[in-house]
Amino acid sequence: xxxxxxxxxxxxxxxxxxxxxxxxxxxxxxxxxxxxxxxxxxxxxxxxxxxxxxxxxxxxxxxxxxxxxxxxxxxxxxxxxxxxxxxxxxxxxxxxxxxxxxxxxxxxx
Length: 109
Fold this sequence. Notes:
Elements (H helix, E strand, L loop, with lengths): L20 H15 L3 E2 H12 L5 H13 L3 E6 L19 E6 L5
Antiparallel strand pairs: 1-3, 2-3
């Protein structure tokens, strides 16, 4: 509201503080560690955004989670786990017929 609906060059939280991807990654890992178990992916997005007060576009959050998965910091278990062409699935949000769980697999941050 303070920016008068003008887009910012940097991502901000609800208090207009700057947010960096690395900070969000660390916060996500800490949040998952606190949960202590795997959680449904869409539930994770919703609860993390609420607890952290993050107002980033959803696609940015999915990209951050995908980056954590690539770096083997989190594990995402997907159902189905293979496409019709026998390739591993890579969807980053749940929808009809697609379920997923996320968990921390590497405690080293």
